[in-house]
Specification:
The complex is a heterodimer of chains A (300) and B (254). Chain A is mainly alpha-helical. Chain B has 8 helices and 9 strands. In chain B, helix 4 crosses helix 5 and helix 7 packs across helix 8. Chain B starts with 16 loop residues before the first strand and ends with a helix. The chains are: A mainly alpha (300), B alpha/beta (254).
């Protein structure tokens, strides 16, 4: 089953045909060597975003120093001030990290509950068309609810503490889990189902050995979306619910009202970083679990 | 040497697999099969050739019990029925070995027995060395071998093949044909093979049936007289060409 390398070597061009065979092979080595091409492509990959990033920073400085008069500079402090006050003053930075950690916990708990509910519902829906028909419109409705519209009601019912925050996370992250899991469970090909039918596999065996593994790629796609949404939910929830341990939402609110521009921007940057790290983490878990057999797209 | 058998019209209900007056009309009114009657004994390898969409695959689905016929009856032991699909239908999250062990797993064999069966099957189809590969890294031919090996673990007395080599290239197909007839010899199953390739049909089979366009009926049957094991060179034998030509003529007339 192996192909001799001679067969895949490209045919020499006319002008090179008078070279001895060995040199000919050297001349026509297809593409640069892997070792040589790596740094070059790294430069190609790294340079554009670095250039754009530098341009954006420059633009930021222009706004801070040229467009804003000194009296209004608090609206957008220059980058080095943000780093100085927000990141390098440990009092400020540790407060932000603590709040971020609180929000992360809320997001993880909410996501965990949403995964449990979502898996259960999707599995039920995959087992009976009737259940799918019953649940589907409500799942779609859940997705269509503007979260900000019901946040006051959640506070009204569940208090203004951690429970309410977690519930916001669940509501906002549930839909993609249900839909992706259901889609995944239904993705096993008919031929594979026939195979299980032929060999008298029962419902549970079919679910365990065919439908669940087949669902994994879609499940992970849903998880990545939902994890990001859970982080948003935790921040939005925290923004409105002030009781209990304050999260990053409360901090954002306080910094904004106190006109602490540096801390505010630091909190925003750190919140974004949390979103990115969450997305990466789930991409990494996906690669770990199904990377061996599934063509996982490369994540940035 | 050769000649049309009279089995076409004779009702026989003995054998490892028997069709008796099978008819199939789908709910939308499409009549796929009409009055199919023949049987296959142990040691027989029967191939049904027919134009696309004539209901050949439907016949196999009926034989396996995946589909109930609207007329007639099937007699077969479904406990250990072998069925090789058009696609390899491998589970992408399982390695070659794990895929091959699937059926033994579904039938409740213990781990030691599964390993023994899969090792033997892997050897039979020449996949040694590829046990730990995932399907995504296999060629079409190797996927089909894995699919064959998976079915072989059950040592099925009746083996159904639903055009399994249609998607692989000509050379691979010929290799797989040679291996299939070798397996038929060594394993001694009763084989029912569906294809639209005449040379594949004649090369492997003890008997070739020709099916008409929809509704599918058996319109001709040919005994294939060549002895086993058949060598690749058989394909260049004038008798082989003669017989293939006759099957082809019958198929055109369908």
């Amino acid at each position: 089953m192996t192909v001799s390398p001679d067969l895949i070597r490209p045919a020499p061009e006319g002008s090179a045909s008078d070279l001895p065979p060995a040199e000919e092979a050297l001349v026509h080595t297809p593409g640069p060597l892997p070792g040589a091409s790596r740094p070059k492509s790294l430069v190609r990959v790294a340079v554009p975003p670095v250039v754009l990033g530098a341009a954006l920073l420059g633009f930021w400085y222009v706004i801070s120093y040229v467009i804003l008069e000194p009296s209004r500079r608090f609206l957008l402090q220059p980058p080095h001030k943000v780093v100085e006050v927000g990141f390098l003053e440990w009092d400020n930075y540790s407060r932000i990290l603590k709040a971020l950690w609180n929000s992360t916990q809320v997001a993880l708990i909410g996501l965990g509950i949403a995964i449990t509910i979502g898996f259960f519902l999707a599995t039920m829906m995959s087992q009976a068309k009737m259940i799918e028909r019953a649940v589907f419109p409500f799942a779609v409705t859940l997705q269509a609810i503007p979260i900000l519209a019901i946040v006051p009601m959640i506070g009204f019912w569940f208090g203004y503490g951690t429970t309410a925050r977690v519930i916001v996370c669940i509501i906002i992250s549930l839909f993609p889990i249900i839909m992706n899991t259901l889609f995944g469970l239904q993705s096993a090909e008919r031929g594979m189902h026939d195979l299980f039918t032929l060999h008298q596999a029962n419902r549970l065996t079919r679910l365990r050995k065919l439908m669940f593994p087949a669902a994994l790629p879609a499940v992970f796609a849903g998880l990545r979306i939902s994890a990001g949404l859970a982080v948003i939910g935790a921040i939005v929830g925290d923004f409105f619910f002030g009781q209990g341990e304050a999260g990053i939402g409360q901090l954002l609110r306080r910094y904004a009202s106190q006109l602490d521009g540096e801390e505010l921007l630091t909190s925003v940057i750190m919140s974004s970083a949390l979103g990115v790290v969450t997305f990466w983490t789930f991409g990494w878990i996906q690669k770990l679990v199904i990377g061996k057999w599934h063509e996982t797209e490369v994540l940035g | 040497m050769k000649g049309e058998t009279d089995l076409v019209t004779t009702v026989t209900t003995t054998g490892a697999l028997s069709f008796d007056g099978i008819g199939m009309t789908f709910p939308d009114g499409t009549e796929a099969l009409r009055n199919i009657t023949f049987s296959i004994d142990k040691g027989e390898f029967i191939t049904v050739v027919g134009p696309s969409g004539c209901g050949k695959s439907t016949l196999l689905r009926i034989a396996s019990g995946l589909l109930d016929p609207t007329a007639g009856s099937v007699e077969v032991d479904r406990e250990r029925l072998g069925y090789v699909f058009q696609d390899a239908t491998l589970l992408p999250w399982r390695t070659v070995r794990q895929n091959i062990e699937l059926l033994a797993e579904l039938h409740g064999f213990d781990s030691a027995e599964r390993t023994r069966l899969s090792t033997a099957a892997i050897e039979l189809v020449g996949l040694t060395g590829f046990e730990n590969h995932y399907p995504k890294s296999l060629s079409g031919g190797m996927k089909m071998r894995t699919s064959l090996a998976r079915t072989l673990t059950l040592k099925p007395p009746v083996f159904l093949f639903d055009e399994p080599f249609g998607a692989v290239d000509e050379m691979t197909r010929e290799h797989l044909n040679e291996e299939t007839q070798r397996l038929f010899q060594s394993e001694g199953f009763a084989g029912l093979f569906i294809t639209h390739s005449i040379s594949e049909a004649v090369f492997m089979s003890t008997k070739v049936y020709v099916m008409s366009a929809r509704p599918g009926r058996i319109i001709a049957g040919f005994d294939v007289p060549f002895s086993y094991p058949r060598q690749p060179e058989l394909r260049f034998n004038p008798d082989f060409a003669q017989l293939s030509g006759e099957v082809s003529l019958a198929l055109r007339g369908s």
